[in-house]
Amino acid sequence: MGFKDFCFKKSLWLFHYGGASCNNCDIEILDCLTPRYDVERFGMKLVGSPRHADVLLVNGSINKRDKDRLLEVYDQMAKPVKVVAVGACGCTGGIFAEGIPFAGPVDKIIPVDAYIPGCPPKPEAIIAGIVKLIETI
Amino acid sequence: MGAHILYFLVYPGFLFTAIVGGLIAGVDRKLTAAVQFRKGPPVLQPFYDFFKLLLVKETILPASGSKITFLLAPVFALSGISIAAVLVMMPLLGINTGFEGDIIVIFYLLTIPSLTYIIGAMASGNPLASVGASREMKLIIGYELTFLLVIAAIIYKSGAETSLYQIIQTQQAGSVHIGSISGVLLFIAGMFCTQAKLGLVPFDMGEAETEIAEGAFIEYSGSAFALIKLSKYMLFFTLPALIILLFMGGVQLTGIHVLWAILKLVAVVLLITLIRNTNPRLKINQAMRFFFVWMNALVVIAIVLSYFGY
Ligand code: SF4
After folding, report:
1. What is the ipTM of this complex?
2. Which domain, by its residues, includes A55?
3. Alpha carbons B130 and B118: distance in angstroms, whole number
4. Could you tell me if the CB of A97 is within 6 A of ligand 1?
5. What's the domain count of chain B?
6. Is RNA-binding one of the keywords (chain A) (predicted)?
């Protein structure tokens, strides 16, 4: 493992993209930043601009309108970028998968590096997913 | 000549300031976490962030706006703060070269980072960046007058000396400036100016993460953003060092005095971190009123008091 990878691993900045979600996943993601779970321990922090981010967290089902915006956000990010699909909606479409506006789960639109299942996933599950993501670097 | 380049690049200039500044930024994040009952990132986190941005990430140039200005702004910010750091550190650490560190020069050099951030933000062509830049500009108008008045008062208290060596000498011969009533008032005003110059809460409206997503820096990525981060870390060491120099009689690097030097630095950094963690963000008009009315009044009172010898 080179020095570059080591630094990348130690400092993942997250950008949170919420598609057409029911908002539960959004809340669980924010839970990870609270004192109880504190993902800042691993050097992660939520950033406001996709330009600064290393990890794109996508939750919620992606409908036809979200698709363009998701692609736009993905294009704006400085590469290399890791994408994490959070929740059943992000992974497969979940309960929205048969809806008319559904435009496919996240991995049909952009490459996904880690999946975190659950509806919503517990903060522990999100942290476990992130650890798995770190191991892939 | 070789020694001078070494002064500039290694100790006490660029490299030394960058490393200590990075450590201070790490301690600051650790303390912030402690205030919020969290564990917080490792102390070396700022270095990981810096090297990740510098080595791993791609730098994206804005499609609209001036690319060259956009890229040069961080370089100028870094050079400005490096020169300021050398000129502050040399008197502080008692390294005597021919140049008499002059406080007016320091004042101008310390405005370079904020100005270049504004220029860079304007060159990026992003609307949120220009909101951030305009707030930053108003903030500069607010605090620079106060900062200048503080410096004027310090010059007066040190017997009309503008050289940093002389300011330290005066304090080490007599009493330190913070030991008098006027000194305490000046110290309060100086600390708030430091806070505003560092762009920390309550004066972080220029890069308010929650409303305008880092404002002035929103378009920066990769190595350009790394340079901005580095200049921020260096500022985080240089400004407390300047406060120590102006108010606390500098430091001595012999024997037990080293411990005092570190304690002074820790005290100033702790104060900055605590102010930033216990205050909400001000609106820009509140911040300007705070400096124009209250801080300027405080400094003027301090000047009058020091005229009467308090
Ligand atoms: S996965 Fe479940 S909790 Fe998450 S957004 Fe979809 S429906 Fe809501």
Report:
1. 0.86
2. 3-136
3. 8
4. no
5. 1
6. no
Report the distance separating Cα A29 and Cα B236, nearest Å. Answer: 31
Number of independent structural domains in chain A = 1
In sign, the C-alpha dihedral spanning B221, B226, B232, B233 is: positive
Identity of the amino acid at A22? C
| Two tokens, residue B291 | 């400096």
* Residue B44 C-alpha, separation from nearest chain A C-alpha, in angstroms: 10
For ligand 1, is residue A24 a contact (CB within 6 Å)? yes
Q: How many CB atoms lie within 10 A of CB A87?
A: 30
Tell whether pTM > 0.95: no
Domain with residue A47: its CATH number is 3.40.50.12280
Neighbours of B233 (CB within 10 A): 26
Which domain range does residue B268 map to? 1-308
Q: Whose structure tokens read 């102006």? A: B246
Inter-chain touch A48–B40, beta carbons under 8 Å: no
Burial class (CB in 10 A: 0-12, 13-18, 19+), B193: buried
Q: Tell how far the Cα of A62 is from the centroid of ligand 1, in angstroms.
A: 12
Q: What residue type is assigned to position A129 of the chain?
A: G
Q: What sign does the dihedral B274-B279-B280-B285 (CA atoms) show?
A: negative
* pLDDT tens, chain B, 310 aa long: 677 777 777 777 788 888 989 999 999 888 888 888 888 888 888 998 898 888 888 888 887 878 888 888 899 998 888 888 888 888 877 777 766 668 888 888 888 888 898 888 888 878 888 888 888 888 898 898 999 999 988 888 888 777 877 778 788 777 777 778 888 888 899 999 998 888 887 888 777 777 777 777 888 888 888 998 899 999 999 999 888 888 887 777 777 778 888 888 888 999 999 888 888 888 888 888 989 899 899 999 988 888 887 7
Say if the Cβ atoms of B51 and A79 lie within 8 Å: no
